């Protein structure tokens, strides 16, 4: 269940990617470059998880394992799970995001949407300056997102089924596969196979995670303290401002960013960190 949940959670970032699209030629060129870089990164990631080929014995068990996985993960299961998640878990989470006006403005002026402090009227006025159709654009993007997630899960499903079939062929003997298959061939087994995946999208799972969130957030302070103690004997990290002019120039030369650009990026990051700290503090406050 965990790998499916993580895969779906990772796709939550898609609206930001959709929102960042630009039709300008230079944006298209940048997108192509980004795609090339992403392909290289994915190739490197794939190389980080080498797999041993199946032995002859495991290969012989593979057909039985494939039949079993077909019962455990019927075709369309992952897409159906996403439909359930959008209605019960991901949908409410996405609604907590910034409103469309703030997102539109932030996209055009190069800041994070949560860094803007604008009331609804002003935000709408400014958003309309950049995009007169921002409200309709947001609606269409929001409607497209569940469709894209469903399509992606449908695309992922065959590879997941293949990987699981190989794992079952590796980890279970012929007799064990037969016993497991016997259970899933029953009405109860069929129901279990279906419900075990769909239960991962039940709001109760999200609710349980949210209940643990305050305690988990509270642990972050302890983790930072432990990290500080573990590295106390190391030299202090130098900030960019602490570098000499010559050292700053060297950083700029090697990174390709000007000193002004680096300082501006640092300021943005500090603002983001402050916003995240404020969110964490708010999350720790008891409800009144």
Describe this structure in words.
The chain is mainly alpha-helical. It is 76% helix and 0% strand. Helix 7 (100-109) packs across helix 8 (120-130). The chain starts with a helix and ends with a helix.
Major sheet details = none
Number of helical stretches of at least 4 residues? 14
Share of residues in helices? over 70%
- What's the rounded overall pLDDT mean? 76
* Radius of gyration using CA atoms only: 25 Å
Strand content: under 5%
Molecular shape: extended
Give the topology.
Blueprint: H1 2-10, H2 14-19, H3 25-47, H4 56-72, H5 77-88, H6 90-95, H7 100-109, H8 120-130, H9 134-171, H10 174-184, H11 187-198, H12 203-230, H13 245-255, H14 259-284
In short:
The protein contains 14 helices and no strands. The protein has about 290 residues and is mainly α. The N terminus is likely disordered.
Question: What are the salient characteristics of this protein?
Answer:
mainly alpha, 14 helices
């Amino acid at each position: 269940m965990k790998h499916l949940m993580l895969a779906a959670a990772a796709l939550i970032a898609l609206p930001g990617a959709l929102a960042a699209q630009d039709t300008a030629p230079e944006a298209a060129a940048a997108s192509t470059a980004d795609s090339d870089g992403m392909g290289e990164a994915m190739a490197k990631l794939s190389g980080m998880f080498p797999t041993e080929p199946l032995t002859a014995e495991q290969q012989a068990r593979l057909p039985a394992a494939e039949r079993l996985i077909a019962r455990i993960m019927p075709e369309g299961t992952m897409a159906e799970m996403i439909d359930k998640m959008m209605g019960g878990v991901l949908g409410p989470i996405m609604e907590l995001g910034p409103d469309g006006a703030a997102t539109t403005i932030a996209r055009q002026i190069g800041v994070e949407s949560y860094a803007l402090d604008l009331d609804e009227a002003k935000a709408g006025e400014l958003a309309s300056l950049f995009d007169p159709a921002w409200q309709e654009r947001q609606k269409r993007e929001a409607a497209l997102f569940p469709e894209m997630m469903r399509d992606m899960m449908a695309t992922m499903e065959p590879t997941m089924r293949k990987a699981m079939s190989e794992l079952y062929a590796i980890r279970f003997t012929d007799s064990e596969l037969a016993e497991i298959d016997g259970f899933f061939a029953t009405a109860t087994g069929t129901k279990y196979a279906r419900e075990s995946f769909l239960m991962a999208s039940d709001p109760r799972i999200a609710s349980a995670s949210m209940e643990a969130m305050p305690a988990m957030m509270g642990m972050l302070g302890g983790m930072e303290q432990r990290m500080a103690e573990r590295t106390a004997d190391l030299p202090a990290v130098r900030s960019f401002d602490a570098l000499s002019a010559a050292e700053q120039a060297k950083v700029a030369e090697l990174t390709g960013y000007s000193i002004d650009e680096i300082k501006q990026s640092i300021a943005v990051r500090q603002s983001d960190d402050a916003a995240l700290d404020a969110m964490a503090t708010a999350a720790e406050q008891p409800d009144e």
